[in-house]
Amino acid sequence: MLSVDRIDAFYGDSQILHGVSLTVGEKERVAVVGRNGAGKSTLFKSILNAGPRVRGRIAWEGKDLGAMPTFRRARLGLSLVPEDRRIFDHVTVLENIAMARYAARPGVELEAPEAVLARFPMLVPLKDRMGGRLSGGQQQMVAVARAIAGRPRLMLLDEPTEGLAPVIVEQLARDVNTVCRETGSGLLLSEQNLWFARQCTDRLFLIDTGRIVFDGLWQDLDDNPDLKRRYLAL
Ligand SMILES: Nc1ncnc2c1ncn2[C@@H]1O[C@H](COP(=O)(O)OP(=O)(O)OP(=O)(O)O)[C@@H](O)[C@H]1O
Asked: Which CDD domains does this entry report, sorted A to Z (predicted)?
């Protein structure tokens, strides 16, 4: 479904990604793990054409996306939940979720915002609260709910657990798994929290200083403790 083929990405003159390749199939759930500054967010922004200058090929269903702008990529069914969540502070939880209709694929029937909300039990009692009055974990759930409300084919979730309490991380893992399974959305997840990434995905890419240094199943990573020590400082 998504194919990233030997991309380089730059901010100004500084090259951040070096020949990165990965694929995500239909309904597949895949993680990109790596330390701070490894290039995970740059990779996600490159896929959406939302910042870095990119060289190389990014294709969706076999078609090169070329210079296609971000909003059109979203309308193909690619939905990015950025690291900073971008919740609207001055509208309610339910209205935040309703905003998804603006980025949805044309012709796709969307669930009512109330039905999307019901998929996230923690948010149900908060539906009328302003986005700016939520905790970090609650905001993260709203951001995921809003992404799912647009019926994406692939959700890109950038470090969702950063700064969240363990109990919220567990709830988020349950919700992400359930919504991906029930809606049929694929998942590309960037994470440093290996427990969370393992709960939500079947295989992973390990990125370090802008290069993919390993890809395989979680079991393959377990069989390589040296990789964890070298690239994840575990
Ligand atoms: N807008 C920017 N301009 C210049 N350099 C940037 C910019 N954004 C990120 N970088 C640099 O690119 C490199 C990769 O950053 P990136 O945010 O992609 O890493 P990351 O793996 O997502 O890290 P983190 O887990 O800390 O978010 C870092 O060295 C960072 O300083």
From this structure: ABC_TM1139_LivF_branched (cd03224)
- Nearest atom in ligand 1 to the alpha carbon of residue 44 is 18
Helix residue ranges, H only, 119-165: 136-149
Looking at the predicted structure, is the pLDDT value of residue 103 above 80? no
ipTM of the prediction: 0.95
Tell me which residue range forms the domain holding 46: 2-232
Query: How many whole angstroms from 41 Cα to the centroid of ligand 1?
Result: 7
Tokens representing 172 are 């988020």
Rounded to the nearest whole angstrom, what is the distance from the C-alpha of residue 42 to the centroid of ligand 1? 6
Indicate whether residue 53 lines ligand 1 (CB < 6 A).
Answer: no
**Cα separation of 80 and 73, whole Å?**
10
37 within ligand 1 shell (Cβ under 6 A): yes
Q: How many domains does the chain have?
A: 1
Bridge partner list, 3 = 23, 59
Q: What CATH number is given to the structural domain containing 171?
A: 3.40.50.300
